[in-house]
Structure formats: C-alpha cells, structure tokens
C-alpha cells in the first residue's frame, strides 16, 4: 500500500482504523520513532476494553526520492503500563504433587539435582586405595560398611540437596510439629513413643516411621517432635459400670410389616375366630327374625 500524502501521521491513523475495524478503537497520537532504512514506527493509543496501556503500532516506509509512504505492517503492542497476562509457566513447573494419581508418571530427569551418582565398584576401589595410602585401615572398613548399610551402590542416590528438601517438606507437612494433633497431644511426642521406627542416616536425627495401627499417622514418616493421641504411654480410659439409660424413641412415621405366621401355628387362633364368627352370625339371625314382617303377623295372631 502506498500513498503520496505528505502527512504520514494521518496515513498511519487510517491504517490503524482499518486494522481495528472501528474508528473509536484508535485514540490519540502518542509518538513516532525513526528506524533504519527509512522506516518509521507511529504509535496511537488503543481505546478498547481490556487493552489499557496498549498502543496501535503502524510502521511506514518512506521513499525519499519518490516522496512516497508505504505501509509495512500494523499491530497492537503493549507499553510499560499495559495490562498483561501472567507469564507463561510450563505445565511441568505448574504441576503439584497432589495433582498426580497412582496411575500417573512424570519420570525423573537425568540431571535432577535431588540425585547424585552412587558409588560404583571402581569408585569404591579408589576410595579404599586413598584410605590405604593414609594408613587408616579402620576407615576403609567404615566406608565399606556405610556403602552396604545405606545401599550407596545404587545407580543414583539422594544428594544433600534432595535430603534437605525432603526434611523441610516433611517437617512443615501435616506430620510435623505444627499439626493439630501435636498441639492436642499434651506433650506426648513421637520421640518417646514405643511405636516409632527410627530412620537411618541424617534423616533419622529428625524423623521416624509411625507403626501404631490405631494412630492416624500409621505407616507415615513423622517428625520426632510430632505427636498424637495414640502415644504408647497413654493408658486407656478406666471401664465404667455406670449405665445411662436414654429415653425411648418412638417412630410414628413408619409402619412395620410383620410376616404372617404359618397355618400350623395359627390353628387355635383360627378356631377362636370361627367360633366368634358363628356367635356373631347367630345373633344376627335372631335379630333379623325378630324384625321381619312374618314375625309381626305371628305376634298379632297370637293376640
């Protein structure tokens, strides 16, 4: 698009209105900036809901020999005062541990800082050789025992950073000293509980595993200063022989359907019912006979 108009600002405004498809969406002229190659960027305020601080940008090329202005492009550009969405965060960085289910898997990166390479046979031989040069035979045995005890010969083991992050997460979690159960445990902490299974390594100085089947923390890692109402030193309540009888409750909103007894069990009842029916029938016949017309005629004849 070219134009021989001498007013490039008017041309840029017309281009911005054409891009906005609404004259009211293009506000006042803001500024212009000369760029390389005869290109100039013209800015106009964007007057649209949700685009506060945005500007219409129209770049024009000026051919000085022909004195022609050519439109390069037009777009919306945010200024320093623009209302912008939050920065994009990758899905894996937005994911929380609670978002995963037992069937989900995100894997572990090879360069995960929470892990470090374990001690291989070559590394162990090098450690033993270094210790042997120092003449400390007991130290070599201690290193070998530590590798076996903590299974440090695995391909990767937790790094110091990984253990530190784990300790903070466990300590600040629901099984640490800040939990409600600890506040109501009345000083009965896990460190003195017989159901606590200690951990090995440096994490064992702060944590253990609860093994009380009646505790809400059963099978979970708890801090030594955590607590609950199922401490091994808490004695059960004394039994009481006092029986508190509650008032009877009557359900007058429903009808209970009782199954009818079998015929063999109803023999005597049926005999009584038949006898009553016979008596009722005899009395009814006598009353009917007494009130019939024939009875009345017989009475008159007798008189």
CATH class of the domain at 2-78: Alpha Beta
**Tally of strands:** 10
CATH topology of the domain at 2-78: Nuclear Transport Factor 2, Chain: A
* Global mean pLDDT: 84
**Helical percentage:** 25-40%
Uncertain segments of ≥5 residues (pLDDT<50)?
none
Which band does the percent of strand residues land in? 15-25%
Protein described:
- The model has no long low-confidence stretch (mean pLDDT 84).
- α3 packs antiparallel against α4.
- Among the domains are: 77 residues, Roll (Nuclear Transport Factor 2, Chain: A), CATH 3.10.450; 56 residues, no CATH class; 63 residues, no CATH class.
- The longest helix is centred in the C-terminal third of the chain and has 25 residues.
- A five-stranded antiparallel beta sheet has the order 1-5-4-3-2, with helices on one face. A three-stranded antiparallel beta sheet has the order 8-9-10.
- By secondary structure, the chain is of the alpha+beta class.
Quick structural gist:
The protein is α+β, with helices and mostly antiparallel strands. Among the domains are: 2-78, Roll (Nuclear Transport Factor 2, Chain: A); 103-158, no CATH class; 161-223, no CATH class.
């Amino acid at each position: 698009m070219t134009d021989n108009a001498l007013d490039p600002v008017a041309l840029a405004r017309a281009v911005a209105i054409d891009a906005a498809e609404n004259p009211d969406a293009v506000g006042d002229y803001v500024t212009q900036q000369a760029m390389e190659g005869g290109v100039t960027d013209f800015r106009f305020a964007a007057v649209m809901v949700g685009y506060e601080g945005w500007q219409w940008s129209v770049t024009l090329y000026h051919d000085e020999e022909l004195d022609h202005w050519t439109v390069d492009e037009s777009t919306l550009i945010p200024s320093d005062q623009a209302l912008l969405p939050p920065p994009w965060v990758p899905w894996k960085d937005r994911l929380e541990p609670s978002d995963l289910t037992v069937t989900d898997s995100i894997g572990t990166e090879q360069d995960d800082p929470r892990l470090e390479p374990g001690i291989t046979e070559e590394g162990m031989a090098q450690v033993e050789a270094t210790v042997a040069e120092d003449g400390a035979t007991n130290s070599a045995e201690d290193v070998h025992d530590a590798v076996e005890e903590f299974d440090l010969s695995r391909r990767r083991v937790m790094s110091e950073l990984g253990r530190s992050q784990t300790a903070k997460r466990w300590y600040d979690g629901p099984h640490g000293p800040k939990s409600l159960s600890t506040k109501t445990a009345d000083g009965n902490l896990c460190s003195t509980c017989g159901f606590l299974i200690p951990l090995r390594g440096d994490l064992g100085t702060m944590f253990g595993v609860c093994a009380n089947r009646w505790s809400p923390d059963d099978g979970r890692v708890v801090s030594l200063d955590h607590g609950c109402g199922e401490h091994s030193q808490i004695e059960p309540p004394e039994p009481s022989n006092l029986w508190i009888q509650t008032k009877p409750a009557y359900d007058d909103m429903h009808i209970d359907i009782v199954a009818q007894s079998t015929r063999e069990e109803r023999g005597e009842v049926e005999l009584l019912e038949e006898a009553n029916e016979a008596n009722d029938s005899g009395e009814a016949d006598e009353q009917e006979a007494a009130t019939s017309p024939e009875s009345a005629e017989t009475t008159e004849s007798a008189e």
